[in-house]
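Forwarding these from the shared drive since the link keeps breaking.
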Amino acid sequence: MIMISKGNSFGGKSFANQVLTEIRPNLIKRFGKDSEIMQDFDNEEKFFGFIALQDLSKDDFNFVAEQIINADLDEKPKIALIEKIKFDPRFS
């Protein structure tokens, strides 16, 4: 599941895994492999099956959103996820 904000989430465990696998290289470039943000992403997805975006700053949220928009993901769930992301007030 992708937890965009409180009460706004999308998808399941396998979709969260697919998203993180696809965008992880660019996240590492931005945040660093051993950064707290990357550790949170990796641990949340591995142990709990979700990726949490609700605590990201506006800049970091928009970076992650851009990576999702440009990711090679299954088109139908990707479009639905992007629509939910666009409702977040941090999105620009």
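-- next protein --
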Amino acid sequence: MTDSTDATAGRPIDDATARRYVGSQIALFLATLLHALLTWPPSETVVLFAGGIAVAFAVEAPAIRAGLFTHYLRPRLVGVPVSILLAWPAVVYLAVRTASLIVDGPVAVAGLAAVLATLADAAVEPSAVRDGAWAYADALPGPRVRGVPWWNAAGWLGVVFVTALLPAAV
């Protein structure tokens, strides 16, 4: 399932589209954080949101340094857009809360949350690449689907699983 669409062109995002992306990521963060603060234990909220930001940074920054991809959204912290750091725990939170309605136990919830968040990313990722929010390098061989390399989904599965387990630690 390779795809050589213009989604890998790597052209930077235009200012208006960048503002839309950043604004929607910040709005998602604020809405989910507010929801969590109103409906979830405070300790789990802090651990998921603060831990989620830390995990996102710990994964994104080295991947950027390794040349796997480049972000074009601003502002950035060591190459990682701040809005991406905020959006990450928001997406994981939504996936965890949804998964917890379907399955029981922290490992089952984390596993289903990983699948749900990865599917959500698979729906959004090609548009973000096409719009120039970020670009993937050809650093790792393998198939791409709509311009997104296979290892993006593998990364999402693993990193969401770990992040989704954080609330169980408190």
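The chain has one domain: 6-169. Helices lie at 15-39, 42-65, 82-102, 106-131, 150-165.

- D.
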